[in-house]
Amino acid sequence: MSLFQQNLEKYANLAIRTGINLQEGQTLVVNASIECAPLVRLVVKKAYEAGAKNVMVEWSDDTVTRTKYELAPDEAFTEFPMWRAQGFEELAASNAAFLSIYAPNPDLLTGIDPKRIATNTKTASTAMSKYRAYLMSDRAVWSLVGHPTVEWARKVFPNAESNDDAVAKLWDVIFETTRIPAEDPVAAWQEHCDQLHKVATILNEKQYKTLAYEAPGTNFTLDLVENHIWAGGGAVSESGTPFRPNMPTEEVFTMPHKDGMNGTVRSTKPLNYGGTVIDNFSITFENGKVVDYSAEQGYETLKHLVETDEGSSRLGEVALVPHKSPISDTNLIFFNTLFDENASCHLAIGNAYPTNVQGGTKMTDEEKAASGVNQSLTHVDFMIGSAELNVDGITKDGKREPIMRNGNWAIL
After folding, report:
1. Does the predicted TM-score (pTM) go above 0.90?
2. Domains with residue ranges and CATH for the chain
């Protein structure tokens, strides 16, 4: 067996044993592109070896997706197969686990009318909202892992000698940043997540009222909800199963107050949003709401994003990531949020994770609104971190304390 095949086997095993932490007798749903077939086959094998009752694979295909956007009538983007939405809801309610193998083409929808993309995104998000609520409240186990495509690999390694060389280079980075070369990747992940839990514990004890950000193009304050919870390194499902939602992960994150953002933030990495790149953009907030924005690339896409609904003009997540970290140390721009968000401090437009505030998973929508929890059909992370970013925490009595200096932890 080649070294690559050995690593791929370990990667599939890690996704099942650590990412999903699949339990005996549990159903697994795998969402993947047809380009991921070799990994999917290994994942299915590892799942059954771990005791899965059933493994269901939901395939997608970029060529089919692009063809629909090019040729389908406008009304096609206002429809969604409700049998699919109901099926996912039923699976989530029956304690199924969900693994997404993320294999994007960052430029898939370049040249497509942004209005068509926005309409389709809103239609799908509305239809799948109940299913997504299971995931965002950890009522179901879920995880996301990466997989190269030729288009993505070429975007990351434009000077590679060939397509195969670019894909091989990207696989090497994925394996390295998910700790596959370790003698025991599962144990290495546990050690890494213990460190993230340590940082989250420090921040939870502080219970800062406000975070203040300063960097080139960024001068910004963000209030946190009362009784917020910092999380990182993993989650625990409602049924008590520990799992890792994102692999890789380097972040600790919590919930901003939906009315508490003021000032301007500037992006430090491109954002690949549904097959369209938004780059070199700034967003200005006043009392929590977006009041202005600009972008050198993807302005119309950004416009449609923040205008999706009322909540998409506000933030639902704030995450801290040290500049000195395995993904950042590659000095690569991935054009892929799974990787770029774990190389950089970031914020998320849209829906908040109810698990980031005490009692949040039991709150009604009215109670969430009263507590400052943002609600939206969308949740989109964008990166603002760099080696020039300073972050301070401001206590309830007004004391200002350093959390990050020059992009790295000042609290450890």
Report:
1. yes
2. 3-177 (3.40.1830.10), 207-409 (no CATH)
